[in-house]
Amino acid sequence: MEYTHSMEIDGDEKSDSEDLTNKIRAFYAAGAGNVVVVLDKDGDSDARTIAVSAGEFFDKKLLIRRIKDTGTTATGIIGFW
Asked: Each residue of 45-74: pLDDT tens digit?
């Protein structure tokens, strides 16, 4: 899939209570770790943990509305939509 927009997801973009400015369909993680996400179809407390390797591009056709700060250990995350 081709993406036309991207944004860094660090600092204020990661949140346990606020959704991303734009829902994303894929993300890249420069540093290995976990990315805790809430999907568009899920409730606020329904978080899923995705383990990623350094340099991994995660593109599973999911619509992600939030990347939680708590539990997210991967670094250099860039979201695509």
From this structure: 999 999 999 999 999 989 999 999 999 999
**Which is it for strands 48-52 and 56-58: parallel, antiparallel or unpaired?**
unpaired
Q: According to the model, what pLDDT value does residue 10 have? A: 87
- Are 44 and 36 in contact, with CB atoms under 8 Å apart? no
CA 35 to chain centre: 6
Name the domain count of the chain. Answer: 1
The verdict on residue 1 lying in a domain is: no
